[in-house]
Amino acid sequence: MSLLPMMIMMGAAAANADKLKGLIQQVTTVAVQSEVNEISKMIVLDNITGSTLPKAEEFEAYLRANMRVPASNSAHKRDVSKDRWQHTYRVEYPGPNQVKVSSAGPDGVFDTPDDIYSVREL
Prior knowledge:
CATH topology: Glycoprotein, Type 4 Pilin
Number of helices: 2
Structural class: alpha+beta
Strand order of the largest sheet: 1-2-3
Helix content: 40-55%
Shape: elongated
C-alpha cells in the first residue's frame, strides 16, 4: 500500500476516534444527569416520609446506604457516591425548602460551566 492511502486511512481512523470520544462523553453526561435527578428525588421522598436530610459531610455514606445498583451489574460494582468520572457527588440546600445535588462534571471541579445538577423543592 502506498503512503498516501495509508495516511488517509489513519486520518479517517483518528476522526472516527474523536467522534466516538465525543459520543461517549455525551452518553456519560446524560447518565450522570439522570443519576443526580434520581438522587434529588430520593432526598425529597425521604423528606416527605420524615427522614432527616443528609448533611454534606455524611452524603457519601447516605448514597452508599440508599442507592441500589441492579443485580445484573454486580460484576461491575462502582461506588454509587461518585459520578461516572469518579468524582464525589455534592448536596447543598440553597434555599429554605430546596435541595441541590451536583456532579462536578468531566473537569472534576465544582462551580464551573460543565457541572451537572438537579434542584428540587422540599
